[in-house]
Write a structure and sequence with these properties.
about 425 residues; five-stranded mixed β-sheet
């Protein structure tokens, strides 16, 4: 009898055979894995740490939906024993907070996974920066610390026009804050440290330079190659555009052709190799510009080896013929099938609205009348920028730009207000 197993099916234990995957710490709802594994005929079991082992912000998290059942994690030894009894054949992280535990469990079960001794390198951007610099990969200038005095001393010794202060752990909904002086850093430090600890369980913060370079997101899926070494398949690359005030304005899917995307892909693969990513999905954020002065290619901002699903996922699948999560499953369920051919010339743009809890019903109805609108979101997705967004997709770029201008005009009003202007 598995003492820690809580079945999601009344009065019976879910049978687990060879095709069973354990998804560790899926705090933000069901996530992408249950449906993705189910398409291959696999069960998924949520491994949910008991409340005292979770970061404070997730202690009241509800049992995730969509899984065959839930295993309550208390100790690694008990969880490994239970999963071995159930015949689990894959262990994946359901969130950034689950990376470390997932890698430890996979190692004990002799299943595919990264080295648990270096788990923080898959989510802690401060530790990532130290290793990447030693590997001659450029990163943002900064310091990782729990000490305000050390952070202020670093800023004093590295005078810059602006700084960004945020959690060392990537993938939480806590966004970095911008400051221009030591006094501002000191004033913002206590709140940022509390927020970081609440969502990540760690009080480590990272203070970096506030750069003016273009920022890109490179998503990938890694699987072992024929020689056993990891192969990183780049699934999609996005370019960010920001307002004069630094707010995220829009994110455009880039064409796979061209020198820029090849340069970004190469740097992302280098970072993934150095940081020990060996299987599953990863998101690499890069900063790049012709005047970056680094001479070694794009700067690595962060890497997160956990699934990041956005409202644009369906539009991305239509535009590229590839499913990021399905590609990532190749690490555990190798498939010889080639990706479906993608339609040519399909554009995808994510328009980011002012931070909001949800778009009001009247605004949703109005936005859905625009011909290129394919999705709306008013909630945060792990690893994604905060705030509501509207996803546009079409082979007609002019139509997308017209709808974009309409949305920006509407966004001058409060799209979350129940009262239509």
């Amino acid at each position: 009898m598995i003492s820690t197993f809580v079945t999601a099916v009344a009065d019976r234990q879910v049978e687990a055979a060879d095709g069973t995957a354990a998804v560790v710490a899926p705090y933000d709802g069901s996530g992408p894995y249950p449906q993705a594994f189910a398409r291959h005929g696999w069960h998924t079991m949520a491994v949910l740490p008991q409340a005292r082992l979770r970061p404070l912000a997730y202690q009241a998290a509800e049992e995730p939906a969509g899984y065959s059942g839930t295993l309550v994690h208390r100790t690694v030894r008990e969880t490994v024993q239970d999963l071995r009894t159930m015949g689990v054949s894959a262990v994946v992280a359901g969130s950034a907070a689950g990376i470390e535990l997932a890698e430890r469990i996979a190692w004990h079960l002799s299943l595919p996974g990264a080295d648990p001794a270096t788990s923080p390198l898959r989510y802690d951007r401060g530790l990532q920066a130290d290793l990447l610099v030693r590997s001659r990969i450029p990163v943002l200038r900064g310091i990782r610390t729990t000490s305000l005095a050390d952070a202020v001393a670093w800023a004093r010794g590295c005078p810059l026009p602006g700084y960004l202060l945020g959690p060392a752990a990537v993938g939480s909904p806590v966004e970095p804050s911008a400051y221009t002086s030591e006094l501002q850093i000191s004033a913002g430090w206590p709140a940022m440290r509390r927020a970081a600890a609440g969502y990540t369980g760690s009080a480590h913060l990272v203070l970096t330079e506030q750069h003016a370079l273009c920022q890109y997101t490179v998503n990938s899926a890694t699987r072992p190659g024929p020689d056993g070494r990891p192969e990183h398949a780049i699934t999609d690359i996005w370019a960010e555009t920001r307002s004069v005030g630094g707010q995220l304005d829009r994110t455009d899917l880039l064409s796979r052709d061209g020198l820029l995307t090849r340069t970004l892909s190469l740097q992302a693969r280098r970072a993934l190799d150095v940081l020990g990513v060996v299987c599953g999905p990863a998101t690499t954020r890069l900063a790049y510009g012709v005047d970056d002065g680094a001479g070694d290619g794009p700067l690595v901002v962060s890497v997160l080896a956990a699934p990041v699903v956005t409202p644009a996922s369906d539009a991305l699948r239509t535009a590229t013929g590839r499913d990021r999560i399905a590609d990532a499953l190749d690490a555990w369920i190798p498939s010889p099938a080639a990706p479906a051919p993608a339609p040519g010339g399909q554009h995808v743009v994510r328009v980011h609205l002012r931070p909001a809890a949800a778009i009001a019903p009247w605004a949703q109805r109005l936005l859905h009348t625009l011909p290129t609108v394919v999705a709306l979101s008013g909630h945060h997705t792990p690893g994604a920028p905060l705030g509501a967004e509207v996803v546009l997709s079409s082979s007609n770029l002019r139509a997308i730009e017209q709808d974009y201008r309409v949305i920006r005009s509407l966004d001058k009003h409060d799209l979350t207000s129940p009262d239509q202007p």
